[in-house]
Amino acid sequence: MVVRVQAEDFDVGQEFARFTQGRTDLGGVALFAGLVRADQGSVTAMTLEHYPGMTERQLEAIEAEARARWPLDDALIVHRVGRLLPGDRIVLVMTASAHRQASLDACHFLIDWLKTKAPFWKFEEGSSGGKWVDAKETDDEAASRWGK
Amino acid sequence: MVVRVQAEDFDVGQEFARFTQGRTDLGGVALFAGLVRADQGSVTAMTLEHYPGMTERQLEAIEAEARARWPLDDALIVHRVGRLLPGDRIVLVMTASAHRQASLDACHFLIDWLKTKAPFWKFEEGSSGGKWVDAKETDDEAASRWGK
Amino acid sequence: MKILYFASIRARVGHGEEEIALPPDVKTVADLVGWLKSRGDTYAEALAEARTLRAALNQEHVSFDAAIKNSDEVAFFPPVTGG
Amino acid sequence: MKILYFASIRARVGHGEEEIALPPDVKTVADLVGWLKSRGDTYAEALAEARTLRAALNQEHVSFDAAIKNSDEVAFFPPVTGG
After folding, report:
1. pTM summary value
2. What was the ipTM of the complex prediction?
């Protein structure tokens, strides 16, 4: 169970290989990789800010919750911060379980939480200047379907 | 939209890179990789048989259905056949969309279908010999939650 | 007619593919199963479990009352187990 | 007391971190917000939108009636937008 918040890019293949290497107990690995979307060309860059310390602790807490809810063999969260360009990778969630449904549901749960409740703030740059992104209610709904 | 049935292994990192390279319209990529599970050490090898022609057509049809149900930018299914050992990769599903939920739901839908309805047959080898695997009803339930 | 067998059915029949000349009175998949079983114990045993026998006609799943003709491809297999 | 500002709040305050000596009559997060606002227009404007102001006390989300002391770390930020 690992959580990393970093400015550096991550390599999906390398993370997947490290995650599964030498293991014969995993029925499947579910993975979600978030990318910076250009949004019809209006977003030219995005900067992610976090609260060092608090952000990592909250990510560790949600990973522990996922592990309590589903029979996971392993979980990984890698989240980038700093200035990112369209097409750049932002976030990686990987979950492994003997059971396909558990890994898929846990991955879905974690990325919904990360996309809505995780302590990150986004600053978007576009052709008409930069602005801080407001929290979206539709995203809160996506996270709320997991109950508590 | 690509479907491949092959004896050769696949490289998750390479498939992911090819899938996302040069694209700025993808909000996220959902991925599921199925692995051969040792099942408490009782399974020593697994052989997957398919119906060449029919299997590929059915995989293409389910991919088309996923594309009709969700706003996908791309989808990939790679499925291996032949004799596999514990820890080997069996199947890869990757879906990309501007919207996280769409890619996750479509990936979940596709892997549920692949694991239950796709024309593959499994022969398991263990310490007490080999046997053809029977269709599981719990898996049918998993697939049926997607309705029609 | 081309007939294909897969998985446990193939293993019991002893081969995965054969060409037959379809007898004129064999008009459905069910007729074909009956005719194959009449060819000997190996077929009779391989195709005995009607509950778990599945058929495809020209690579599409069909029920046993589906009509067949000599130019078709028919396949027999147990329920799929997925990937 | 260590005070941290993030995102749009940080941008408006003009810095991300400061150390203050907590006045004795400032007993809650709400008191602290009031005291900071009294320090000048920059703070008053940066912390004006009560509806979208969030606080953390020692890296845990808290409501504005939470009690604070001089050894605490308090952070102000807008609602998180996720990753």
Report:
1. 0.89
2. 0.87
